[in-house]
């Protein structure tokens, strides 16, 4: 079986969780990167299974990823939704993904919520997905595989979340270059929102930035940072709910 992984994973946590699911399905995996401006996908019934994987941004699907996903044509392919969050809450992310997937003609057969290290406040869910998560996700993958083997698979389950979706504000934390920036251009070349000018990678377009933290994650000299005081405010606000370990959940 082949797995088409439609992936938005700016800092790598979502990718780790998604590949665990793919391995559990025993699937050969081909990645379609939603972070690329030229993302496209066209599937067809009988072409294996699709996994749509993205992180939750403040309880919603990342707006940029959601818009790019709408270009996909599922062609009736069975599909698993995977939302990854930083141990706070995923809120309306999965129902938003579900609505888009069905509009794109995917046959949603399962939904999964998994945990990865928080992309902004890194002490929350640090090191996750960990060995326990891997075990749980592998078992979820096996259960999805058994459902897929049935003659009829479909969307006969309720995914938690609300419609209309919660309202979200724009990016509160926009990473900026420090004096240590060596202008290598790696951040500009890999920014999903194209918010960093290739000609001047020390700059950031605040209107385009989605605060995905990829530039912070990949900078080879750690020269891109967010405002420490704002990070501390966020940590204080979400700390009480992020400090209690949450486990993977699934619906199928």
Write the layout of secondary structure elements.
Layout: E1 2-7, H1 13-24, E2 28-33, E3 49-55, H2 63-69, E4 78-85, H3 93-103, E5 107-115, H4 131-148, E6 176-177, H5 186-190, H6 214-218, E7 224-225, H7 228-242, E8 249-251
Parallel strand pairs: 1-2, 1-3, 3-4, 4-5
Antiparallel strand pairs: 5-8, 6-7
Helix pairs in contact: 1-4
Radius of gyration computed on alpha carbons: 18 Å
Query: How many DSSP helices?
Result: 7
First and last CA, distance: 19 Å
Give the overall shape, derived from the CA principal axes. globular
Q: Got a strand count?
A: 8
Give the helix proportion (percent range): 25-40%
Biggest pleated-sheet summary: 6 strands, mixed
Question: Can you list the strand order of the major beta sheet?
Answer: 2-1-3-4-5-8
Indicate the proportion of strand residues: 15-25%
Order of helices and strands: EHEEHEHEHEHHEHE
Structural class: alpha/beta
Q: Spans of 5+ residues with little confidence (pLDDT < 50)?
A: none
pLDDT averaged over residues: 93
A few lines on this structure:
This protein is α/β, with parallel strands linked by helices and 252 residues long.
Question: Would you write up a description of this structure?
Answer:
This protein is an alpha/beta fold and 252 residues long. The chain is 29% helix and 17% strand. The protein has seven helices and eight strands. The chain has helices spanning 13-24, 63-69, 93-103, 131-148, 186-190, 214-218, 228-242; strands spanning 2-7, 28-33, 49-55, 78-85, 107-115, 176-177, 224-225, 249-251. Helix 1 packs across helix 4 (131-148). The longest helix has 18 residues, at 131-148.
């Amino acid at each position: 079986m082949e797995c088409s992984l439609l992936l938005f994973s700016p800092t790598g946590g979502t990718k780790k969780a998604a590949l665990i699911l793919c391995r559990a399905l025993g699937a050969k995996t081909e990645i379609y990167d939603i972070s690329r401006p030229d993302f496209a996908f066209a599937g067809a019934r009988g072409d294996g299974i699709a996994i749509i994987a993205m992180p939750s941004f403040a309880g919603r699907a990342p707006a940029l990823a959601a818009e790019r996903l709408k270009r996909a044509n599922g062609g009736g392919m069975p599909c698993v939704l995977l939302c990854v969050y930083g141990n706070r809450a995923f809120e309306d992310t999965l129902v938003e993904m579900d609505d888009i997937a069905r509009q794109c003609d995917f046959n949603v057969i399962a939904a999964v919520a998994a945990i990865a290290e928080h992309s902004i406040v890194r002490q929350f869910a640090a090191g996750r997905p960990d060995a326990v998560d891997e075990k749980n996700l592998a078992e979820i993958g096996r259960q999805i595989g058994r459902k897929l083997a049935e003659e009829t698979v479909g969307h006969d389950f309720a995914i938690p979340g609300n419609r209309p979706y919660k309202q979200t504000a724009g990016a509160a934390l926009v990473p900026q270059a420090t004096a240590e920036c060596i202008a290598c251009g790696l951040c500009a070349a890999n920014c999903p929102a194209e918010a960093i000018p290739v000609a001047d990678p020390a700059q950031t377009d605040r209107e385009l930035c989605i605060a995905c933290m990829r530039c912070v994650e990949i900078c080879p000299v750690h020269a891109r940072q967010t405002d420490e005081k704002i990070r501390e405010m966020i940590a204080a606000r979400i700390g009480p709910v992020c400090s209690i370990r949450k486990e993977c959940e699934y619906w199928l």
